[in-house]
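subagent[fold] <- orchestrator: predict structure for attached chain, return tokens only, no commentary.
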Amino acid sequence: MSGWRKPLSASAALPAQPGRPTDTRALTQVLFQELFALERGTPQHDRVRAALIEANLPLVRYAAARFRSRNEPMEDVIQVGTIGLINAIDRFDPTRGVQFPTFAMPTVVGEIKRYFRDNVRTVHVPRRLHELWVQVNGATEDLTTLHGRTPTTAEVAERLCVSEDEVRQCREAGRSYHAASLEAAQEGEGTPGLLDRIGYEDPELTGVEHRDLVRHLLVQLPEREQRILLLRYYNNLTQSQISAELGVSQMHVSRLLSRSFAKLRSANRIDS
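subagent[fold] -> orchestrator:
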């Protein structure tokens, strides 16, 4: 990152004055009182402002540490957070009775989050491809203006004196700048998003396992008991209809069903 220079230390930015506190919170309050008494743009105003920035850099480092897992150079994150700190200093009004750290922290964190949202790739790519991606974008814009159309890969490669494969690779890397939402439409309006193309768990899979288990247990029953179960639970016949079909009493059908269930439960416990 560029465009921001680390300010002088508070001790270097301001001459020592008797009675000036060394505690950061108290020093910040004193410096803001001095800052509001000075005219903007004057050297003294700039020195007090620089001292305020330096005195509150620990606040920035604390906020930046929350983003350590993002694998971005911590120096860059601290510099972005310092921009938020400067904005907070310029907007802070000590007469409102709010402590400066309480006021500044959301601004610092917000600036860092904005940096990750707008400038950091979702997927990290080699630095060489990142630098070439910038050049390819620039060459593409120049050639589009020159020819009045989108340039081909060969034209961009010739302009940059690189191979077509390198141009294609860096364009592919450029697509990793932001992650696409799984619910976002692809290739045009109305087209299903990625989420709609991902396989889902078929609820019938559980039924397959159950049917296989039942089939395994049924073959262990006598043939007549298998037939009774099939008539009752697959053909949905009542016990009276089954008794008429087999020429036996309804009571006998009921006893056979109860005996079959007992055998199935026992076989299931053994298999388990």
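orchestrator: received. Logging for downstream: The radius of gyration is 37 Å. Residues 2-13 have pLDDT under 50 and may be disordered.
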